[in-house]
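Review form for a predicted model. The reviewer records the input and the model, then writes brief findings.
Reviewer: anonymous (R2)
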Amino acid sequence: MTALVVPGRPDGAEVEAGGESTAPAAGRRRDVRLVGAGMAVVLLAWFALVNRQDVRIHFWLASARAPLVAVIAIAGVFGAAIGALAVRFSGGRRRRHGA
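Model under review:
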């Protein structure tokens, strides 16, 4: 079948002679990313609502109480920062063993 470009279509899609639209691959990738981001937001909101209880945190000299979701989020941020620093200071190189 022959694809026809329809002027005025904002997505730049082509229309088959039979009337079916073939969306460009970039548009599909964007849609998949948007759906994935939406699902991640919903899951994070659910996780936060489920983990609202307070937990006791013990430091070396003191202790405190905080919501569990905040403790997990702060630990995740610290872990990501430490990982990013490790990659940066290693130069992003991978070490090969044995060769």
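Findings: The longest strand covers residues 54-58.
Further findings: Residues 53-99 form one domain.
Recommendation: see findings above.
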